[in-house]
Design a protein that fits this description.
Blueprint: E1 3-7, H1 11-17, E2 29-33, E3 36-40, H2 42-47, H3 55-61, E4 66-69, H4 72-85, E5 93-96, E6 100-104, H5 109-112, H6 115-128, E7 134-138, H7 141-150, H8 170-176, H9 182-186, H10 190-197, H11 199-209, E8 225-235, H12 255-270, E9 272-282, E10 290-300, H13 303-314, E11 323-335, H14 356-369, E12 376-379, E13 389-392, E14 416-423, E15 430-439, E16 448-455, E17 461-467, E18 472-477
Parallel strand pairs: 2-4
Antiparallel strand pairs: 1-6, 1-7, 2-3, 5-6, 8-11, 9-10, 9-11, 12-13, 14-18, 15-16, 16-17, 17-18
């Protein structure tokens, strides 16, 4: 087995950095715990703010300082989301609280190539989500975690302070013995080590080196996507919410673009597509919340495909004056089959609309004109021509009743029908072809008609019929 560990040294700060549009190196940002600086960004370090400093000291150094209180619940939730995003690389992803996770990648190498390439792909994915990950590869999860936390390439070189020992109370005793690295600890006799530090330490080293199994609980994938951003400063115009389609967007630009990036990564990892999104915008009060649903004719997965239609809907919605909260939910999730293509063209009556260009056009019409602006005509199993079709949602498959050979209209029938049929004078009709008898069963709408293709005095081709009472009717025109 081969394990890849990812440790996020700045996770606590990164979960808050999204509130100010990312880790802006020009603005000092610190994370506080017990009113002391636990983490700081590059700008805070450059200003001279040190870990352990009080908030008052930090403010005296940098007057434009932005500070956040550590939120363990948000960190845990974010770590779980990152783990789901990395599920695309391995079916076995395990959380290592509070700031790391491990993936068993040995079984994934046939798909992704060598371990080094997969490692870089995982780091790049985390960076796209706005997180810097320290990574390491090892034959056991404990060894990979220790190396990733210490950011070293050899297990023996890992400092004991970063080795994730089973108990931190042993660190001082080990330091007093002159032991500073895992290599020195592993070299000690196991019996003496157990006598001084207990069986827990012995078992830890055995799992670290692979002499004992180290099973890990895998994550459970969530069934829905529901992410929100809480902004430190309000957004007052729509241009500040969503990057224009076609621009090179990154996760630390606009709020809606960041959420769409996360949605795309989540959908790819879950092998799903979304047919409907629901956006929510608000300040602090719930009563000012504006909800904006966006539907698609076919399931989408890519951020750019979502953004083009969302931009059209956004132009038509009146939003709160100051937006501090943006939320995105993905509804109507379906298995993703976007890479599949038909070997042959769809046969008449198969019913699925597979042309992505048509889907995008339909989405644009819906976004500009509303959900009822566009419909698809589908043939249904009825003999009466005026009852043999129905309007359906574009892209929806219509089931044909058993025995229906084709959803195509029979040859010689017009697309344009009168409802109801109009009385006609047979003296004005010149019959060209026919008759075609249409007669329904006794339990259906009772009709008995002989249809003809005919021409009128003005030369227009029409579809006419005579019924059982010998009355003539005009039922439609040919184009």
């Amino acid at each position: 087995m081969l394990w890849l560990a990812l440790q996020f040294p700045h996770l606590g700060l990164e979960v808050h950095a999204q509130e100010i549009g990312g880790d802006d190196s020009g603005r000092p940002v610190v994370l506080l715990e017990d009113n002391r600086v636990r983490l700081g960004n590059r700008a805070a370090s450059a200003a001279g703010i040190q870990t352990g400093a009080t908030l008052a000291t930090a403010h005296s150094i940098a007057g434009d300082l932005v500070h956040f209180q550590r939120d363990l619940v948000r960190e845990e939730k974010r770590l779980g989301f990152i783990a789901e995003a990395l599920y695309r690389f391995s079916a076995q992803v395990s959380l290592e609280q509070p700031d790391a996770l491990v993936l068993e990648i040995g079984s994934s190498l046939a798909l992704f190539g060598d371990a080094g390439h997969l490692r870089l792909e995982a780091q790049a994915l985390c960076a796209e989500l706005g997180h810097r990950a320290q990574t390491a590869l090892a034959g056991t999860p404990a060894a990979a975690l220790a190396m990733a936390t210490a950011s070293v390439g050899r297990l023996e070189a890992v400092p004991l302070a970063q080795a994730r020992l089973p108990s931190v109370k042993h660190l001082e005793r080990l330091a007093n013995m002159g032991l500073r690295t895992l290599g020195a600890l592993i070299a000690l006799p196991e019996v003496e080590l157990g006598r001084r530090f207990g069986q827990e330490m012995v078992d830890y080293l055995a799992r670290l080196t692979g002499r004992l199994p180290d099973p890990r609980a895998g994550i459970e994938l969530k069934a829905r996507f529901d992410q929100a951003l809480h902004l430190l400063e309000p957004v007052r115009d729509k241009a500040g919410l969503l990057d224009q389609p076609g621009t090179a967007a990154t996760p630390d630009t606009t709020p809606m673009t960041r959420l769409l990036t996360e949605l795309e990564i989540w959908l790819v990892s879950h092998q799903l597509g979304a047919e409907q999104l629901v956006w929510s915008f608000s300040t602090h009060a719930e009563e000012d919340r504006v909800v904006m649903p966006v539907s698609f004719a076919r399931a989408q997965q890519q951020r750019r495909a979502f953004a083009r239609i969302i931009q059209l809907r956004l132009e038509q919605v009146e939003l709160p004056e100051d937006i501090l909260n943006v939320r995105l939910e993905a509804l109507r999730l379906v298995p993703w089959l976007g890479g599949n293509r038909q070997l042959f063209k769809l046969l008449p009556g198969d019913g699925e609309m597979s042309d992505p260009d048509s889907s995008e056009l339909i989405d644009q019409l819906h976004a500009r004109l509303g959900r009822g602006a566009c419909a698809r005509l589908a043939v249904i199993d009825q003999h009466a021509p005026e009852s043999a079709w129905q309007a359906t949602r574009p892209g929806r498959k219509v089931r044909q009743a058993a025995g229906r050979a084709s959803a195509d209209a029979p040859p010689g029938r017009p697309l344009w029908l009168f409802d109801p049929p109009r009385p006609a004078d047979p003296q004005r009709l010149t019959l060209i072809r026919g008759p075609e008898r249409i007669q329904t069963a006794w339990w259906q709408q009772a009709i008995w008609r002989d249809y003809y293709v005919a021409s009128l005095e003005n030369g227009a081709r029409c579809w006419a019929f005579v019924d059982a009472r010998n009355d003539w009717y005009l039922h439609g025109y040919f184009g």
